[in-house]
Amino acid sequence: MTTENGLRAGLRVLVVGSGAREHAIVWKLAQSPWDPQLFALPGNPGMGQYAACLPGAADDVARVLAAVAEHDVDLVVVGPEAPLARGLADACEAAGVAVFGPSQAAARLETSKGFCKQLLQNLGVRTADFGLFRDLEAARSYVRAQGTPIVIKADGLAAGKGVVIAEDEETAFSVLEDLMVHGRFGASGQQVVVESYLTGPELSLMCFVDAETVVPMIPARDYKRIGDGNTGPNTGGMGAIAPVPDVDAALVEEVRRTIVQPVVRALAAQGTPYRGVLYAGLMLTEEGPAVIEFNARFGDPETQVVLPLLDGDLLEVAWAVAHDQLGDVQVAWKAAAATAVVAAAPGYPDSPRTGAPLQLGTPVDGLVFHAGTALRDGALVTAGGRVLTAVGLAERPADARRIAYEIIDRVYFEGKQVRTDIGR
């Protein structure tokens, strides 16, 4: 059986990436009634249960294309941002292969914070006041004029670590020098965005997007700081919850209508239509929702709490997005709650120490998505800053939280870092 848009049983699908986000994507795709044949590049030990893991680096476009040709892949699902920044979606499209992920030009919403901020300003979309700088002294002058606290962002990709909230001038000047003079993030930090500090609860709203249609997912909230009580440096994310108790359907629709849809229309009008997941990182200010940032892909760890609540077929959605037919798909969500808790390596986020033996303990009801794990002589070891994500699912948020922590308490490796207040 084949649908009108070509969706058929046994589609060969390649998921690009190796983290817990990609593990969650593979896990959800494996549940499709269309019984796809799944590949992951490079994948991780957890994904091996559902997909054939292929050698190579996720951001090596030539290697991914070679794997696509070798395994006769029908659909490429791009997980992380680096391959998008290198034009993987464009290369797949040029090769005649369906792809779930935006073009290099559309992905500038994430890969250039300056591009994103200027687009939002032109559209009149609410966001923090900002300045865009390549000159250190000009950036310092802006900080003096604006006062602190103030937010400093590397313009380009920095693995989720390129944002600093400076509480005083001395810190702000030090961060600017670190980025612009000492090259902490290389070319990504040569241009910086300096913006006003917004206050309020944060919200992660990921949306399925094709050239015209925007379908919001269930809202999530992630926990960026390494320590309890939102203390310590920013990380890629130490946990997440979904849904979010202080966010209703009306707010989600407001964000879709006033923020995401105008951006999608603007990109299409520029000749760079967006296809994939558009993630709006928002601050719920007293004036209304404001954009902190956009990500051009599924978030991590938000994906690990959102996809388990998707009441339907991710393959059907991804295939429709790739063919600009998202409007023909019904997307529904389970009336349940999910909590994700990340176990991170010692030294994360600055200098994670890896290679430690990893024990998952006695399984409990819930999910474990691998991230920084590897097999050494047949045994699991830590191999990245964020090692894995434990996810609890239940009707009640309190039960989802309890399950997630029951799982994480059974995970052992030396120096394990875990926040204890996710979803509290």
The gist of it:
The chain has helices at 20-29, 61-70, 81-85, 88-94, 108-111, 113-123, 136-146, 169-180, 249-269, 302-306, 314-322, 397-409; strands spanning 12-17, 37-42, 52-53, 75-78, 98-100, 130-133, 150-154, 163-166, 192-196, 202-209, 214-216, 221-222, 225-227, 231-234, 239-242, 276-285, 288-295, 337-344, 367-370, 373-376, 379-382, 386-394. It has 424 residues and is α+β, with helices and mostly antiparallel strands.
Structure write-up:
There is one protein chain. It is globular, with a radius of gyration of 21 Å. The strands form six sheets. The chain has a five-stranded parallel β-sheet, with helices on both faces. The protein has a five-stranded antiparallel β-sheet with strand order 12-15-18-22-19. A four-stranded antiparallel β-sheet has the order 6-9-7-8, sandwiched between helices. The chain is built from twelve helices and 22 strands. The longest helix has 21 residues, at 249-269. The model has no long low-confidence stretch (mean pLDDT 95). 28% of the residues lie in helices and 26% in strands. It is of the alpha+beta class.
